[in-house]
Amino acid sequence: MTAVVCARELVKKYNGFTAVRGINFVVRPGECFGFLGPNGAGKTTTIKMIHCFIPVTAGTLEVLGYDVGSHPREIKARLGVVSQEDNLDPELTVEENLLLYAGYFDIPRGEAVKRVRELLAFAGLEEKAGVEVEHLSGGMKRRLAIARALVNKPQLLILDEPTTGLDPEARHMIWEKMRQLKAAGVTLLLTTHYLEEAAQLCDRLVIMDRGIILEEGPPEELVRRHVGREVLELAPVDGEAVEILAKVDGGVLAHQIIGRTLYLYTGNGRDTWQQVQGLTGRFSHMRLRPATLEDVFLKLTGRSLD
Ligand SMILES: Nc1ncnc2c1ncn2[C@@H]1O[C@H](COP(=O)(O)OP(=O)(O)OP(=O)(O)O)[C@@H](O)[C@H]1O
Ligand SMILES: [Mg+2]
């Protein structure tokens, strides 16, 4: 099989509002593929079409070789979903949540019990097996949601903002689990608005904004292609950022002005820094730092991801 997910000119309209406006992407077997974008970009909408939760308005969408419109049962049997909202059953215990879910897939009881035991170990929740979900921490709930999504041994695991709202330790624990799954051959598809998460986990990603895909590629490549290695941030005390820009020549790949701050994207920050040092006029802010995906987003949209 060549593609795990293949979307062509995919469109989603909610009544009159177009949330996804003709997007194209391919998720390859075994990779971790990311959707990065701000609130309202259309990430969850796209995910929901992939797991056959909402119908496609136009275009084609194939998952694991099946069309979402004609073969939702085949698709749902082969994928796992960790949705953005917590939809665990709060009154049931950790173990009961997993067993209940195994029931939906007609997994025989003996096999289900064995699988649930393995998943509790994988999620680091063995000691919490008999605890009601409402008494778990946020990070534990998220690990349980991931364990639950794995009950049917999915070929594709979809995670919609897997670490939003978690503290750094809980987030790193989720990342570790995701890496383990990827090493075991599971294809991962995740959405996030955390740049670091996208950079850490994704082999390839798309940057999405207002229903369209702006860019696609491996995180490092996107950074190199759009903003080079380093960024020099400058805000003049007097005058306009654009006036500084006119005085800097050579070495600058691209620039962006947001408010009073000039962002110079450069392959060699030291050279650019030295040029700027030679300029007359004072700066209220001057900082040289490595370029990140945030800069790519800023350059493409003129807005920050937060
Ligand atoms: N059921 C719905 N009915 C009408 N509009 C909707 C519905 N669900 C989402 N939308 C709209 O579609 C757009 C995309 O929403 P979506 O939830 O896909 O964004 P998102 O990228 O997942 O954002 P977030 O990062 O906040 O989760 C938003 O403008 C949203 O208001
Ligand atoms: Mg969302």
**Protein structure class:** alpha/beta
**Shape assignment:** elongated
Strand order of the largest sheet: 6-7-8-3-9-10
From the N-terminal CA to the C-terminal CA, the straight-line distance is 37 Å
Query: What portion of the residues fall into strands of 2 or more residues?
Result: 25-35%
* The CATH superfamily title of the largest domain: P-loop containing nucleotide triphosphate hydrolases
CATH architectural label of the largest domain: 3-Layer(aba) Sandwich
SSE string, helices as H and strands as E: EEEHEEHEHHHEHEHEEHEHEEHEH
What integer value in Å does the Rg equal? 23 Å
**Average pLDDT rating:** 92
CATH fold group of the largest domain: Rossmann fold
How helix-rich are the residues, as a percent range? 25-40%
Low-confidence stretches: none
- Count of beta strands: 14
SS field, number of helical segments: 11
| Number of domain modules | 2
Structure description:
- With 306 residues, this protein is an alpha/beta fold.
- Helices cover 36% and strands 29% of the residues.
- It has eleven helices and 14 strands.
- The protein has helices at residues 43-50, 72-78, 94-104, 109-122, 138-149, 168-183, 195-201, 219-227, 241-247, 269-277, 293-301; strands at 5-14, 17-27, 32-36, 58-63, 66-67, 79-82, 156-160, 187-192, 204-209, 212-217, 230-236, 252-258, 261-266, 283-290.
- The protein has a six-stranded mixed β-sheet, with helices on both faces.
- Strand 1 and strand 2 (17-27) form a beta hairpin.
- The radius of gyration is 23 Å and the shape is elongated.
